[in-house]
Amino acid sequence: PSALLVLGIETSCDETAAAVVARNAEGAGRILSNVVLSQFDSHAIYGGVVPEIAARAHTECLDLLVQKALDEAGVSLTDLSAVAASAGPGLIGGLIVGATSGKALALATGIPFLAINHLEAHALTAGLTDAIRPPYLMLLVSGGHTQILWVEGVGRYRRLATTIDDALGEAFDKTAKLLGLPMPGGPSVEKAALNGNPRRFNLPRPMIGREDPHFSFAGLKTAVRHAAAKISPLSEQDIADLCASFQAAVCDSVADRVRLAIRSVLPLLPEGTPRNFVAAGGVAANKALRSTLVGISDEFGFAFRAPPLELCTDNGAMIAWAGAERLALGLVDGLDSPVKPRWPL
Ligand code: KG4
Ligand code: ZN
């Protein structure tokens, strides 16, 4: 395959993003531009993402962001090999805005369109940032996703685990909210936990020792609520101890799940295959969780890799890169391809 230049559009949640990524004939990627506009402020007063507001905000700024991405990359529409847009899973209004814009650009320019699975884009990002090739194990932990994936190749994913209730980022956000800490909750909980005693509260370690591979965090969040309700008023130290105890329980639970997943893929790895473990998603920024994951990777002889944070969280470069990888395999999508609010990998 020859060198490719792909525009990527991401509008599945509350980030409007566009990027231009190049893929050379050897399969190496390079980000030429990557612009992200967070709608955080538009949703803050509601305490969560409002789908209708998100869709309108995408409509308002996507054209400008695409132009900015092209300008920063120093390319014009006619230089592109293809346009890729996230087509699911996500909020349907936003997906329609992004995919329709992508299709219109592809139609006007006469180049292929690619309807990208947002989870696939997260899963393939390590190929762009760390130049690693499948197979690898991947933990995706964000506000909307909590999954362990075995990435066998482009288009070949085995979902080893998912959450049976809350996503991990959601659990951090809900815990922050019930303790009166500011949003986004993950960084607030992490900061408070720095001064806390992780052993003061004996919180449950969800799913530990279970043979099914999944995650669960709703019960843990409820346990924090009950522990907090017993103390009135909550001092700053109480909050710090609750956050530290919550984070310790999260790390233990995730560690147990990741070990189980690693054990299940070890037999699939031929002798001599590089062992790579990739973490991505906003929660992968958590230092306590990262050091837990580094420890487990060491235990099993895996190299731990986490793409830079701005490429772990939602962005256009990952969509463009997934598009380039698919295009290199000759895969393209029709202009009649639908968006899919639910689209498991
Ligand atoms: O990947 P992301 O930016 O967006 C999506 O959910 O798509 O992830 C955001 C989530 C939020 O729930 C946020 O609270 C959490 O990641 N998060 C963290 C940290 N930074 C962000 N959770 C724990 N510790 C952090 N340092
Ligand atoms: Zn995402």
Automatic annotation (TrEMBL):
<feature type="binding site">
    <location>
        <position position="190"/>
    </location>
    <ligand>
        <name>substrate</name>
    </ligand>
</feature>
<dbReference type="GO" id="GO:0061711">
    <property type="term" value="F:tRNA N(6)-L-threonylcarbamoyladenine synthase activity"/>
</dbReference>
<feature type="binding site">
    <location>
        <position position="314"/>
    </location>
    <ligand>
        <name>Fe cation</name>
    </ligand>
</feature>
<keyword id="KW-0012">Acyltransferase</keyword>
<keyword id="KW-0479">Metal-binding</keyword>
<keyword id="KW-0819">tRNA processing</keyword>
<dbReference type="InterPro" id="IPR000905">
    <property type="entry name" value="Gcp-like_dom"/>
</dbReference>
<keyword id="KW-0963">Cytoplasm</keyword>
<feature type="binding site">
    <location>
        <position position="173"/>
    </location>
    <ligand>
        <name>substrate</name>
    </ligand>
</feature>
<feature type="binding site">
    <location>
        <position position="122"/>
    </location>
    <ligand>
        <name>Fe cation</name>
    </ligand>
</feature>
<feature type="binding site">
    <location>
        <position position="186"/>
    </location>
    <ligand>
        <name>substrate</name>
    </ligand>
</feature>
<protein>
    <recommendedName>
        <fullName>tRNA N6-adenosine threonylcarbamoyltransferase</fullName>
        <ecNumber>2.3.1.234</ecNumber>
    </recommendedName>
</protein>
<comment type="function">
    <text>Required for the formation of a threonylcarbamoyl group on adenosine at position 37 (t(6)A37) in tRNAs that read codons beginning with adenine. Is involved in the transfer of the threonylcarbamoyl moiety of threonylcarbamoyl-AMP (TC-AMP) to the N6 group of A37, together with TsaE and TsaB. TsaD likely plays a direct catalytic role in this reaction.</text>
</comment>
<dbReference type="GO" id="GO:0005737">
    <property type="term" value="C:cytoplasm"/>
</dbReference>
<dbReference type="InterPro" id="IPR017861">
    <property type="entry name" value="KAE1/TsaD"/>
</dbReference>
<dbReference type="GO" id="GO:0005506">
    <property type="term" value="F:iron ion binding"/>
</dbReference>
<dbReference type="Pfam" id="PF00814">
    <property type="entry name" value="TsaD"/>
</dbReference>
<dbReference type="InterPro" id="IPR043129">
    <property type="entry name" value="ATPase_NBD"/>
</dbReference>
<feature type="binding site">
    <location>
        <begin position="140"/>
        <end position="144"/>
    </location>
    <ligand>
        <name>substrate</name>
    </ligand>
</feature>
<keyword id="KW-0408">Iron</keyword>
<feature type="binding site">
    <location>
        <position position="118"/>
    </location>
    <ligand>
        <name>Fe cation</name>
    </ligand>
</feature>
<feature type="binding site">
    <location>
        <position position="286"/>
    </location>
    <ligand>
        <name>substrate</name>
    </ligand>
</feature>
<feature type="domain" description="Gcp-like">
    <location>
        <begin position="31"/>
        <end position="321"/>
    </location>
</feature>
<keyword id="KW-0808">Transferase</keyword>
<dbReference type="InterPro" id="IPR022450">
    <property type="entry name" value="TsaD"/>
</dbReference>
<dbReference type="GO" id="GO:0002949">
    <property type="term" value="P:tRNA threonylcarbamoyladenosine modification"/>
</dbReference>
<comment type="similarity">
    <text>Belongs to the KAE1 / TsaD family.</text>
</comment>
